[in-house]
Amino acid sequence: MIFGRTERGKPPVEPVTLKILVAGGFGVGKTTLVGAVSEIKPLRTEEVLTEAGRPVDDISGVEGKHTTTVAMDFGRITLREDLVLYLFGTPGQDRFWFLWDELATGALGAVVLADTRRLEDCFAAVDYFERRSIPFVMGVNCFEEAARYPADDVRRALDLDDDVPVVLCDARDRESVKEVLIDVVRHAMAHAAERRETVSG
Fold it and tell me: Reduced to 3 states, what is the DSSP secondary structure of residue 171?
């Protein structure tokens, strides 16, 4: 691009920017997911877990975790020349949930990450998005040491509506994460179209 115009003489495309949240329990892989797919160096607000936080931070099942997100993770990915996604990773612990409302403002949709070893940790995120009618995709982060379950089993365990996509993914793998994000965009577009039909009908 030279002086605001492309080399072919066409005006630059002004991309549509969409905001997607990445939520889920403590240690489920939110920071990893944002980092795996972001085309810029992700903004991270991680702090070292301390002895003082031990009574409030339940690290059972993630004993190897030494840091935690205290505000948000931020990344960006360009899906097409005219479509850019901004990713906001939410903090996982209860005491930081007051930030969620700010982060959720203007969001197209969300990814709720789940770990099958600690499935109950994502209930709060599912409840949050359901209550606010924010479309979300359930991403089951397939940790190497965790048992694998079919998507339908996870759907039943979480009592999700039939229209909520449940996808198995690897939060470390860029292509896997891109597929999850594409699913979020598709699901959110279908959700918006359904709402328009309801209003006009």
Answer: coil
Q: Are the CB atoms for 111 and 139 separated by under 8 Å?
A: yes
The HSE-up count of residue 177 (CA atoms within 13 Å, CB side) is 24
98, 107, 121, 150: which is closest to 29 by C-alpha? 121
Identify whether the C-beta of residue 59 lies closer than 8 Å to the C-beta of residue 49: yes
Three-state secondary structure call for residue 195:
helix
Tell me which long-range contacts 93-96 makes (C-beta under 8 A, separation of at least 24).
Answer: 93/26, 93/56, 93/57, 93/68, 94/56, 94/124, 95/56, 96/69, 96/70, 96/71
Instruction: Report the alpha-carbon distance of residue 140 to residue 143 in Å, rounded.
Output: 9
Strands 136-141 and 166-169 turn out to be parallel
Cα angle for residues 111, 148, 140 (degrees, 5° grid): 5
Total-model pTM: 0.78
User: How much is the mean pLDDT over the chain?
Assistant: 83
